[in-house]
Amino acid sequence: MTNYDYIVIGAGSAGCVVANRLTEDSDTTVLLLEAGNPDTKPEIHIPAQCLSLLGSEVDWSYFSEPEPYLNNRKIFCPRGKVLGGSSSINIMIYLRGNSHDYDHWQSLGNPGWSYLDVLPYFKKSENFSRGASKFHGVDGELSVTDLIAPAVVSQRFVDAAVELGYDHNSDPNGMQQLGAGLYQLTIKDGKRHSAAAAFLLPIFQRPNLTVTTKALVTRLLFEGTRTIGVEYLHEDMLHQVRVNSEVILSAGAFDSPKLLMLSGIGDAEHLQTLGIPVVADLPGVGQNLQDHPVVSVAHEATQDLHTASSSSVAEAGLFLHTPGNLDAAPDLQFLFGPVVLAPPGYAHSGLGFTSFVCLTHPQNIGSVSLRSPDPKDTPMIQMNFLQSETDVQKLVVGIKLLRNLFGASALDEFRGKEIAPGADKQSDAALEAYIRDTCSTVWHPVGTCKMGIDPMAVVDPELRVHGVEGLRVVDASIMPTITTGNTNAPTIMIGEKAADLIKAERCKPSAVSSYLA
């Protein structure tokens, strides 16, 4: 059986970073296992083609279970099935979240995760097109850039927000997040700069790195509670590999808890029901699922919007506090793009623009559980969107605010008729019905292997899985609470910080002696 110092499961936003950093030491061997395909599909690399990737062969195309508060609709939950993970199919927005997000993580019993602690890791990854500053780095692998050729209507969205009294904010990753501006994107030379393109492609030739695609990990291997390796399916054959030091699970908010449960780590009662031997009774595995619910307001456009191939479907945005919101972080995010993204059933043709209304800190908490003990089965996903009436009312407020913004004079030359919700939906009751009929996700699942010290925590503040040895989870699933905005940048940061934690562990005398044994 082949041995590696580290095995990383999942070549997504965090896994690519961890594999890169650990193999900087030429004496450290790393096996990176990715269940998806190589990132050779041409559309991956063309920013304006990102929507064509949804539901394709590079997408797991998960669906939730029927959602009780959304008229029992199943919610489409795309996840990257490819090198780079979801960073290879997302809309490329680079947003770190709010400083209060990370200070809150620390207050929950996670020392070392405050904003001041994680800021250096954001900067470490980054090559920011505007240059270095207190908030930005230029020596990192990941290209973070302003839009090369934003559509004029996207700039008019920002102008409309300023016209209504909101601040102009040219850098939501800087001093403050509130206000309107054009988004920063992970694009390099007009092409998508995924985690694979940034962190993996440049190091493919390192002799101490082995990357295997189309490798579905079926279970973790244990001796007692010590992780000793993994089993995976590749080309219809089962393989087993041993690990000398640690296994790093970076399969994402749906598949990391799935693999833990398949391997006997999770709620003992759930596992026993499925006949899975229990290695560690951790009831929090798969719980605490959080995501950002969204609804859209779409308009026809009166003229060609001249979008570029380097454009994203979301070019501009706005963060704001709704009336009465006492939280430190904004509770609404708008994502605006020069494309029509009306919900199913809303007929349209031709040109248009859309903004999503996104709840940054919804009250819904969902879960991920096993459908069966078969590793090929999809996980059972329950979002529980709009369980809270407060969330519904905030989305109603968001639609009204967005309608006011779309009515500003800055958009006069572009604004056609409203496609969705539609001019006939004006009352609160009509908007509430529209929200429950159309609310979906903006594809930011987190939290299902949350970090902490409470009974429902899955990993400790160093991302080690409670109750076992030699196993960490490193991806968006470790977030105790969801960040304010898009989640790709925070996930890359988690990979950076985890790599340092892993290296520090290996340098401890006890770790060195056991490693050499």
Automatic annotation (TrEMBL):
Family statement: Belongs to the GMC oxidoreductase family.
This protein's record includes keyword Ribonucleoprotein: no
Origin: domain of life: Bacteria
Source species of the chain: Nostoc commune NIES-4072
Keywords from the named record: FAD, Flavoprotein
Positions of FAD binding: 82, 217, 443-444
InterPro entries assigned to the protein according to its UniProt record, in alphabetical order: FAD/NAD-bd_sf (IPR036188), GMC_OxRdtase (IPR012132), GMC_OxRdtase_N (IPR000172), GMC_OxRtase_C (IPR007867)
GO molecular function list: flavin adenine dinucleotide binding; oxidoreductase activity, acting on CH-OH group of donors
SUPFAM superfamilies: FAD-linked reductases, C-terminal domain, FAD/NAD(P)-binding domain
Domain Glucose-methanol-choline oxidoreductase N-terminal: 80-103, 252-266
A matching Pfam family: GMC_oxred_C
Needed co-factor(s): FAD
The keyword Oxidoreductase is annotated on this UniProt entry: no
Gene3D superfamilies noted in UniProt: FAD/NAD(P)-binding domain, Glucose Oxidase, domain 3
Protein name: Glucose-methanol-choline oxidoreductase
